[in-house]
Specification:
The protein is mainly α. 85% of the residues lie in helices and 0% in strands.
Length: 180
């Protein structure tokens, strides 16, 4: 399925690139968005260098055209790529910048997603209290947005963080609430 999805994204990118108006701002915005989305498939397939290149193109376009929402999304995805290859400090920088931009434009869904990714990164660095704080904030936003899966993912991280801290009572409480 991932290979089929990649083929459709690549077809869409090719269509934009070959169109006569591919230098217009809206076409470039579309290209940046497609690049960012396609990079996620490359990341999931373990093609991190390709994902980085595509996100880099998106970031360049977003900065040139002053597209903060596209830039924040691209930075978040770049943070995930860097996290995948254990470049946690670089990942944190990208995610932190994405969070700042997301808050500035008040994109609640993107704020929640970036906070979630920051909590995953904090777990990987054994920063359990930070993971709990970020996950709780993210969970609240997902709840406000009606995103039960996002909320459950955050609650799961909180439960695991408490387990890592040896607080099994809170861990169980969060794990059980994630099942609701």
């Amino acid at each position: 399925a991932s290979y089929e999805a990649r083929a459709f994204f690549e077809l869409a990118l090719s269509s934009v690139s070959q169109s006569h108006d591919n230098k217009l701002p809206e076409a470039r915005r579309y290209q940046a968005t497609l690049n960012t989305q396609l990079s996620e498939l490359h990341r999931r397939l373990g093609e991190h260098d390709v994902a980085r290149r595509m996100i880099g193109e998106s970031i360049t376009i977003a900065r040139e055209l002053d597209l903060p929402e596209v830039l924040a999304e691209a930075l978040m995805r770049l943070g995930r790529v860097e996290s995948d290859v254990s470049q946690n400090d670089i990942a944190f920088q990208h995610l932190d910048e994405a969070l700042t931009l997301s808050r500035k434009i008040d994109n609640r869904k993107l704020i929640a997603e970036v906070l979630y990714n920051l909590s995953v990164l904090a777990m990987g660095k054994d920063e359990y209290h930070q993971a709990i704080a970020r996950s709780n904030e993210s969970s609240e936003i997902f709840r406000e947005l009606g995103d039960q899966y996002g909320e459950a993912g955050c609650i799961n991280i909180v439960g695991y963080a408490y387990w890592c801290l040896g607080d099994y009572v809170n861990s169980e409480r969060y794990y059980l609430s994630a099942l609701d």
